[in-house]
# Entry
Amino acid sequence: MPAETRGLRVTRAVAAGIDGRSAASLHPDLRTFTADLVRPYGLPLREDLLAEGAGHDYAEMAAGLLERALPGGEPADLLILAFSSPDVRPAAPASLRLSRHCPGQPTAFAVCDQGSATAFAALRIAAAHHRTGGCRRAVVVLAEQSALHHRPAAPVELPAEHRAVVLVCEEAPGEGMRVRQQAQPDGAQALRAVREEHRRLGPGAGLLLAADLAGSPEGAGAARPGQPFTGVWSLLADRLPGDGPLLVADHDRRLGRLSTLTLP
# Structure
């Protein structure tokens, strides 16, 4: 008799906007690090933001959400911090600091530098780790803070507020979550690809789209603008636990990357 199929899937999520700023945003190391980072590219610093102490620490932002996402001290085997905009404590590994707030003292690391596709990459890593047999519960922390302490080389959309989302991924009977990522520079073609993938899921399947996927199909949930990294995941937090298959899609126009998550 074949063994029961068990997969990893997102079972719950907690999202919240974070007010204020972190003390680390006024630390002189932030200026030193940022200046070293941008000097080879000739980009100027945002002296106004550095002087006023704008920005938030990702470990501080997410620590309180972990308590809400894992009530009763449920242990995790893996913790992944995913972010797109830089942290204000670049010298301190926020993922390791967060692991100390997470029951089970999970293996922890961070994923970045992939735009909005970073969140999907983190979920792919969690699913791959589960397949090794060493992960029954994974926590994926998504965070974005609204301050960029240098002038970007090209226009970028900055978050309207500091915001964090914690996704709890657990082993369950049946098929696990499926993440697909592909090069797709054209926004209209990306939306057509999402529609086709959604159609294949069958009638009744849900669809959640990031704000930059314009022209969303009827009945789809669209993330609010202003949160380019966490927007669609905040929307997912409002929908879980769900009933039936669900497709989550995001398209990073700057990097030309289409990413989708299918939850059975």
Observations:
- Residues 122 and 180 are 12 Å apart (CA to CA).
- The helical segments are 28-38, 47-52, 58-69, 94-99, 117-131, 187-200, 231-239.
